[in-house]
């Protein structure tokens, strides 16, 4: 049997016969049986048996092969062809997998049915090749199916990813936080799934397109895993390069710093810029507006809300000058003006625009009507008042209040010295309703806050609630807003009711002084974010400067910005360009001691000016000496080379402030020009009167104000010292800042004593922590300074906030020496045990003197000039007095009689007259 037709069983037989098979095979036919018998191997018999089995195996093999090839050959070939050429299969992969599984089963069955010992090498090879082809085809189909399944499983995630990522594909816009968080997580998950799929598959087996897709996507998402977290950082860097002409080409002041530039170009859905004092808050807001314009955002799609009209006008002017856009096309205004524009827009053509719109007139009129009728004790059916039924409730409560007041004399005790009872009550009733409106309190809310055990409050507040109800009826009956609060409420309601008309109007809303927003103003701003609008909110502010809690502001809206809004990017501005380092450090230390929730700010100073804030502690006759001492500091500053406009005097209060009134009087006495904001100058020398040749009127508080609006210092106006409250100083600065009356727990100090107004308290709902806000108020005062800061206080009563940072202050304790003319001397009666009394006119103030007879005090001469060294101060029933019997008293100049005025000695006359000259 030729070797190629041999089969393993036969070869095994030959091995067993050990060469006898050769003899048998070579023996002539007659002798082969003899040889087989001779060697006793039964070779021929066994060979015959093997050949028989071989024939059976060959038949089964051939039949099986033909059956498999005829049934599955085309399937296998088609699969192998696609595997070989790398094209996508043009057959149903799932059906192909089934057929190949059947083919594999058929081959396995054939192999199991055959005894390979009876197959030739060629047959075995052919069977192996058939089996390998089927395995290769199945491998191809398995990989293809696994790829398709993985692809399908990823399809939803890929589609969601691409949909969220598509807006950022060109790196032309900032990635909002929610998209970034989603894309970061999705890219990692997809990359992990692709990696798992790649490990599971044999890429060389897949169609080229599939292998390429898997490889490219795995590579792409591997890159995205790193790129997406850094996307915004790269976007900001690219934007800063693209708009470098805007952000850096500032010849006068130099480029915006890194934080300012970042704040300008970051564009999350909600953006908060935490701008500490002097870090360029308004500058950043202005450049944000300009940046949006340069990016192609239409001017009409941007709204900026400022805290004051002056700020709005200044910003609009700067932007118009820088961009060429007409100021009238810029939507920059205060929040009340902004709200009014919404209301006006909604009421065009409705006829409501013809109604009375003088805000405040409606309340003033209502208060006057009710109060006048009640003071006359007119009954509801007699009085000419709106809403007689409500007036009846008001009258009943007001009668009770007058009865209680007659017993307790509350009005007489609390009314101002020049204020009538009617004016006092009118003011309190107006304030009561104003406060309820400011804090959005309904009558039921106010009633719950009334202390029924306090007769004065109970009766007055009950009358106030009735007045509030009447006013709310007036509000409800009037289509157009009749006060500032209603303006905000009405505008908010309009936006929420028609978001497609109003909320979608602006793509960007910019809000200044966000730390001072109230519930109502926040609701108004949030209305623009309602529904499906894509409006972006950009807020700037500083929670350390939140000082309007009494006006309804809530600093928590700033400190909890990220909790209230989604998609928030927070950018701090930490370089103070205003204050010297010592003041920046003192401010940071001051706020570090606050126990109220607040944002941390590692602020640094740009200035290298080496100067320390100064604390002036006056000991003795503080109230009398303070005004003159404050003005002495002004004169010191002027003598040092500062100009009038370089000096700012601050105090906790302004209106009805005894401290600032006395300071103003002293400034006027020394002929130092000065002014307060929103008023004409308090004192202007005759030589500069023509500069202010405009008609003025006087408001209810007696302050002179221009009829045309708040007084504004134009570029040609003469320089003046600014005198104002700390609240009014916010947003301003000066090289020299003098804080008067930095006294603790005082009606005009910082902190002001936590006062309550018994009559109007039920209409107030202040959420701010009083002492935390007072701390912030002192911080505002401190950070107005560009160079020098002076705090004037009473020794032993220094503000707790100054004490918190005393280590940062240079402390000055002025020598207390009195020098002046004795204008009054009253000795006691000879037989009385009463003290000597005298008054020393020290020019800046009058010093009350007293001495007891048993100490044998000197008798002072009226008109004479004295110096009292190391005066001993004693607290008397009417305030501080100087015990001149326990102090060193020196006579400087004796009284000069009228006849001595005829003296030819001018020096003598000067010596006599000068010390006491007024």
From TrEMBL:
Q: Which InterPro entries match?
A: DNA_helicase_UvrD-like_C, DNA_helicase_UvrD/REP, P-loop_NTPase, UvrD-like_ATP-bd
Q: What range(s) does the UvrD-like helicase ATP-binding domain occupy?
A: 254-580
GO MF assignments? 3'-5' DNA helicase activity; ATP binding; DNA binding; hydrolase activity
Q: Which of this chain's residues are annotated to bind ATP?
A: 275-282
Q: Which organism is it from?
A: Natronoglomus mannanivorans
Q: Does the keyword Repeat apply?
A: no
Q: Where is the composition biased (Basic and acidic residues)?
A: 906-918
Describe the reaction catalysed, as an equation: Couples ATP hydrolysis with the unwinding of duplex DNA by translocating in the 3'-5' direction; ATP + H2O = ADP + phosphate + H(+)
Q: What is its EC number?
A: 5.6.2.4
Q: Name one GO biological process term.
A: recombinational repair
Group of enzyme by EC: isomerase
What domain of life? Archaea
Question: What is the protein's given name?
Answer: DNA 3'-5' helicase
């Amino acid at each position: 049997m030729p070797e190629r037709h041999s089969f393993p069983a036969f070869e095994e037989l030959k091995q067993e016969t050990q060469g006898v098979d050769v003899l048998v095979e070579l023996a002539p036919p007659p002798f082969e049986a003899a040889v087989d018998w001779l060697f006793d191997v039964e070779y021929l018999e066994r060979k015959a048996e093997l050949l028989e089995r071989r024939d059976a195996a060959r038949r089964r093999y051939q039949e099986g092969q033909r059956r498999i090839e005829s049934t599955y050959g085309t399937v296998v070939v088609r699969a192998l062809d696609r595997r070989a050429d790398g094209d996508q299969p043009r057959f149903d992969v799932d059906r192909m997998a089934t057929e190949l599984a059947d083919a594999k089963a058929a081959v396995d069955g054939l192999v199991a049915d055959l005894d390979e010992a009876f197959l030739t090498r060629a047959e075995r090879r052919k069977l192996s090749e058939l089996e390998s082809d089927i395995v290769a085809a199945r491998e191809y189909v398995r990989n293809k199916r696994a790829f398709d399944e993985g692809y399908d499983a990823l399809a939803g995630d890929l589609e969601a990813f691409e949909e969220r990522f598509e807006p950022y594909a060109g790196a032309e816009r900032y990635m909002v936080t929610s998209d970034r968080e989603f894309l970061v997580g999705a890219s990692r998950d997809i990359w992990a799934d692709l990696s798992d799929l790649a490990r599971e598959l044999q890429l060389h087996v897949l169609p080229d397109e599939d292998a390429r897709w898997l490889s490219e996507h795995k590579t792409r998402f591997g890159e995205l895993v790193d790129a997406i977290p850094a996307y915004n950082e790269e976007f900001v860097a690219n934007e800063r390069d693209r708009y470098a002409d805007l952000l850096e080409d500032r010849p006068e002041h130099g480029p915006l710093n890194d934080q300012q530039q970042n704040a300008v170009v970051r564009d999350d859905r909600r953006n908060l810029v935490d701008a500490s004092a002097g870090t360029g808050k308004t500058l950043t807001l202005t450049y944000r507006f300009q940046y949006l314009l340069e990016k192609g955002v239409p001017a009409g799609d941007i709204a900026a809300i400022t805290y004051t009209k002056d700020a709005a006008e200044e910003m609009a002017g700067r932007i118009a000058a820088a961009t060429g856009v007409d100021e009238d096309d810029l939507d920059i205004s205060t929040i009340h003006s902004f709200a009014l524009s919404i209301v006006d827009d909604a009421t065009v053509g409705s006829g409501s625009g013809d109604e009375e719109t003088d805000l405040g007139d409606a309340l003033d009129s209502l208060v006057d009507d009710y109060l006048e009728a009640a003071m006359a004790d007119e009954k509801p059916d007699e009085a000419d008042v709106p809403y007689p039924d409500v007036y009846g409730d008001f009258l009943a409560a007001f009668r009770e209040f007058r009865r209680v007041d007659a017993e307790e004399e509350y009005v007489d005790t609390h009314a101002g010295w020049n204020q009538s009872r009617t004016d006092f009550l009118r003011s309190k009733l107006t304030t009561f309703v104003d406060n309820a409106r400011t804090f959005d309190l309904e009558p039921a809310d106010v009633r719950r806050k009334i202390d029924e055990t306090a007769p004065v409050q109970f009766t007055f507040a009950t009358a106030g609630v009735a007045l509030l109800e009447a006013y709310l009826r007036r509000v409800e009956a009037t289509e157009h807003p009749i006060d500032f609060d209603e303006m905000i409420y009405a505008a908010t309601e309009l936006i929420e009711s028609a978001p497609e008309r109003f909320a979608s109007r602006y793509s960007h809303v910019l809000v200044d002084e966000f730390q001072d927003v109230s519930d109502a103003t926040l609701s108004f701003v949030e209305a623009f974010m309602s529904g499906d609008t894509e409006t972006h909110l950009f807020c700037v502010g500083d929670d350390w400067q939140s000082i309007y809690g009494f006006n309804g502001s809530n600093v928590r809206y700033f400190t909890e910005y990220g909790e209230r809004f989604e998609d928030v990017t927070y950018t701090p501005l930490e370089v103070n360009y205003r204050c010297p380092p010592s003041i920046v450090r003192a401010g940071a230390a001051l706020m570090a001691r606050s126990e109220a929730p607040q944002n941390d700010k590692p602020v640094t100073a740009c200035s290298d000016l080496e100067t320390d804030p100064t604390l002036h502690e006056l000991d003795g006759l503080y109230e009398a000496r303070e005004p003159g001492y404050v003005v002495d500091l002004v004169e010191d500053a002027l003598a040092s080379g500062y100009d009038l406009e370089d000096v700012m005097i601050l105090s906790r209060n302004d209106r009805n402030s005894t401290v600032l009134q006395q300071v103003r009087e002293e400034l006027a006495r020394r002929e130092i020009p000065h002014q307060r904001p929103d008023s004409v100058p308090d004192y202007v020398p005759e030589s500069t009167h023509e500069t202010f040749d405009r008609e003025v009127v006087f408001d209810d508080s007696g302050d002179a104000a221009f009829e045309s609006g708040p007084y504004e210092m134009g570029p040609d106006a003469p320089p003046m010292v600014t005198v104002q409250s700390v609240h009014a100083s916010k947003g301003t600065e000066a090289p020299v800042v003098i804080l008067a009356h930095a006294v603790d727990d005082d009606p005009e100090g910082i902190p002001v004593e936590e006062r309550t107004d018994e009559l109007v308290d039920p209409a107030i709902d202040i959420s701010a922590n009083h002492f935390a806000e007072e701390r912030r108020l002192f911080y505002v005062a401190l950070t107005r300074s560009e160079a020098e800061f002076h705090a004037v206080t009473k020794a032993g009563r220094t503000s707790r906030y100054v004490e918190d940072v005393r280590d940062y202050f240079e402390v000055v304790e002025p020598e207390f020496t009195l020098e002046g003319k004795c204008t009054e001397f009253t000795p006691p009666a000879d037989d009385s045990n009463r003290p000597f009394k005298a008054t020393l006119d020290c020019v800046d103030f009058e010093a009350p003197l007293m001495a007891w007879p048993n100490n044998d005090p000197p008798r002072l001469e009226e008109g004479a000039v004295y110096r009292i060294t190391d005066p001993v101060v004693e607290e008397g029933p009417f305030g501080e007095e100087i015990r001149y019997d326990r102090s060193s008293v020196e006579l400087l100049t004796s009284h000069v009689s009228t006849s001595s005025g005829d003296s030819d000695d001018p020096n003598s006359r000067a010596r006599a007259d000068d010390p006491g000259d007024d």
